[in-house]
Amino acid sequence: MHELLLFASAPANQHHELLQQLAGLTAMQPRHRLERHLVFKATRKTGQINTRLGGGSQDVQGAELQRLTKMLTGATYYTQVVGVVNESDFGASTDTYDFDSQLWRMEWRDIPEAGTRSAVTSRLMSNAVLPHGDVVATMNSWGYEFVTEYVVEGDVFIHNDVVLFLHRVLNYSDEAPKTQQPQKMLPPFKDLTLLDRSGSYLLQTAVTVQDGSNPEMVKTATQHLFRLKEQLRTAVRLEQADRLSLDTRVK
């Protein structure tokens, strides 16, 4: 699959107004979203991996297996494992937040394509659902080691086939204990710190194209992004991202 994108920065003092504008444009209320993002680094050599999951977990089947194999056997990349959480999970005890029951999905994103004439960012992408449980052990068995994690807070809107995500990145406090593993218990939400200390938000607009080699599908998706760009031009300036800023390759 291919993902076509445009991005815009929004100052913190315009956040509420922009939420209202996006709600009016999409005719829907924002869907608030909190995500844990675990970052893993590929350490194995390019080649076949065993996508059978140990530890009593069921095997990944069908299309999920195909997606996993394609993601994990190519060149080495940083890959993210994402889990949706609630604000009530932060600062909670293990009685209310169970890390080993957290549902996860793997997100693989290639470096954006170079030399394209299009004015949108285009990159290969794939997602795969992972069984819950010890995701670190699973990723280690596939040749990936845990690097770090962060939290994404934002609001999602849907406009035709475009997904709009107005969000910002939150880090754990510098006073949080440093570990080589993901946090088993989440700190209080108020203790998270902004990656961008100005509080600015990033608006990501994305269209997923099933067949990126189909010119008509890509053209239609691009036109939808351009139309959205024009509709929002008085509020934000949607643009391509710098290609190297989205480089996911392990050096």
Automatic annotation (TrEMBL):
One of its GO terms (cellular component) is core mediator complex. Its main location: nucleus. It holds the Pfam family Med18. One of its GO terms (molecular function) is transcription coregulator activity. It is found in: Nucleus. Keywords: Activator, Nucleus, Transcription, Transcription regulation. One of its GO terms (biological process) is regulation of transcription by RNA polymerase II. The keyword Hydrolase does not apply. Component of the Mediator complex, a coactivator involved in the regulated transcription of nearly all RNA polymerase II-dependent genes. Mediator functions as a bridge to convey information from gene-specific regulatory proteins to the basal RNA polymerase II transcription machinery. Mediator is recruited to promoters by direct interactions with regulatory proteins and serves as a scaffold for the assembly of a functional preinitiation complex with RNA polymerase II and the general transcription factors. Component of the Mediator complex. Belongs to the Mediator complex subunit 18 family. This is Mediator of RNA polymerase II transcription subunit 18.
